[in-house]
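Page 42, continued from yesterday. The earlier attempt failed because a stray header line got pasted into the input along with the sequence. Redoing it now with the clean sequence only.
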Amino acid sequence: MIKHPVKTAAVTIILLLAFSLSGCSLGILWNRSASTTEGTADKSSTTQQDQTGHDDKNVEVVFCPADHNQVSQAEMEAILPILEDRLDNIGIMDRDISIDYSDCLIKIRFKQTMSTQETSAAMSALCARGLLTFKDEAGNILLDGTDIQTAVAEKDQQNSECVLITFTAAGAGKFAEVTAANIGQKLTISMDDCILVEPVIKQAISGGTCLIASLDDGRAQTLAAEINAGALPFLLLVDQINFSSRSTTLP
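This time it went through. Structure tokens are written below.
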């Protein structure tokens, strides 16, 4: 018996790797054509979106001081751990932060995990000064955030949200003096001039703690995080926000 050679289908595989001139993007085109009894099949590429519904992007945010002429290098460096804590609190963990001392800029790069609108709002919230103050009825600042050691979100006896503040040793002494000297008067506790509570002092408090109660649902957790992160040493502004395709990995 004579065996005839079988004509196999011609398969052409072209793999094209295209690099952009900037070296920032990598495109892959895989074109496969085959002669089959069923003809030629084509597959078109589609833009993938992650589970949050937004494009797969990197974000670069540039911050600048409201008055860069009044900001020292030490203050620029001091703001970094505060921003790190605030980024942790909003769940932006994979990030890179750098300081441009020549132009007095702070740059933060991270992978986008929120919508564009949510990202912009979160970056604006990072700029909140975070100044916690305790004022008397005349508006005098009696204590501030530097007198606080920790803040913890809790529930009070009425199951309402509250924040338990524990003062430093020095802060506890000051708070005891303040409450003893202002019995019957109102004590205004504010964050960035936004009034949190205005309790009337009924007696001297020497236990070294203070309770900020009757907060809106969900506010206690964020307020405690803001207090623990501390206040920014200067007023910070968002200079620009850039969204780009995630073609490179963060450092």
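Notes: The mean pLDDT is 78.
Reminder to self: strip header lines before submitting.
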